[in-house]
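Dear colleagues,

For the upcoming journal club I promised to circulate an example of a predicted protein-ligand complex. I picked one with adenosine monophosphate because it came up in last month's discussion. The inputs are reproduced below in full, followed by the predicted structure.
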Amino acid sequence: MKILVPVKRVVDYNVKVRVKSDNSGVELAGVKMSINPFDEIAVEEAVRLREAGTAAEVVVVSCGTAAAQETLRGALAMGADRAILVETDAELQPLAVARLLKAVAEREQPTLVICGKQAIDDDANQTGQMLAGLLGWAQATFASKLVPDGGKARVTREIDGGLETIELSLPAVVTADLRLNEPRYATLPNIMKAKKKPLDVLPAAGLGVDVAPRLRQVRHAEPAARKGGVKVADVAELVNKLRNEAKAI
Ligand code: AMP
């Protein structure tokens, strides 16, 4: 079984994101970028399945600029076997990414695609679902457990108020939630080994896919600044403030 894991290069989750002064987007100049955290979980799951003998190969793929090679090398250092960069300087929205990934899936013929449940930059939570729709494959989103078994996979999903377990026919697209696993840190020897693993660059233009944006981003704004807190002397003062100032009770 071959597993394809799409990984996105995003602003590192520790960075305090700043909106550009003209509100046209987010400041990316000089900002630390990393693999999308849910994609790191997806890579970990795929590598564990290969280590368990369930999968034979883990291929990671990223759509974006040449800088995403660094992100792919990180995934290779975690244990992926091979990487593909679908290279483009175009701004990619989820539908465009799903179409590019469909083209890659048709070439690679994976049995399973494990995406992250959402990219922490645009928070779209769309790409995996669109990819499954375009391929006509089964999908299971927000997976917290994934057990492939023959031509099927059993997936436990995180839903409001509990867990749901569903069975899918393979091939399928699964999107990884936070509790699926705890990703490993890449060790120095594995970082060195990753430099020699194959990384193919496919120009997006050669895939015959329409990547034109369908949505226009109108405006970006910082969240409203929070007011500082106050210390209260006792419970009575707290209740008084909640009742008469905040009017919360
Ligand atoms: P989104 O729909 O943008 O929230 O992204 C959901 C998932 O789709 C991510 O966690 C990745 O697995 C995948 N994905 C999104 N954008 C890209 C990209 N540019 N390259 C590769 N995978 C991506």
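Two points we might discuss: The first strand starts at residue 2 and ends at 6. The first helix runs from residue 37 to 51.

See you all on Thursday,
B. R.
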